[in-house]
Amino acid sequence: MSQTATAQSPSAAAQDQGTHHYVLTLQKPLPSGGFMVATSSGTCSPIGMSRYDIYTWLVGEMVRQTPQLADASTLLFDLQPNQL
Fold first, then answer.
1. Are the C-beta atoms of residues 20 and 46 closer than 8 Å to each other?
2. Would you state the torsion angle of the CA atoms of residues 55, 61, 62, 67, taken in this order, to the nearest 10 degrees?
3. Are strands 73-81 and 35-44 parallel, antiparallel or unpaired?
4. Stretch (H or E) spanning 1
5. Structural domain total, the chain
């Protein structure tokens, strides 16, 4: 059995991915010592959103998925257009 794959043009692939790429890293001290560190990265299309809007939304999503990250400090936040 064989399969045929069709290559996608870079611009079509970027449209499927989202208009922007982000990286967000949060850190929180643990009561027993040490730190909890979590990083999220991906693409999104923040149409009509400010940089602050997308930042607070992403932090909220990370805390929703991992409630222990509530009140964590931001070590890194980067949001760039998803293009070379």
1. yes
2. 130
3. unpaired
4. none
5. 1
Over residues 56-76, the pLDDT tens digits come to 999 999 999 999 999 999 999
Q: H-type helices in the chain, by residue range?
A: 10-17, 51-65
CA–CA separation, 44 and 69 (whole Å): 22
Let me know if residue 43 belongs to a domain. yes
Q: What is the dihedral of CA 69, 27, 18, 11, to 10 degrees?
A: -160
Q: Is the pLDDT of residue 30 over 70?
A: yes
Evaluate whether residue 2 is within a structural domain: no
Q: pTM of this prediction?
A: 0.79
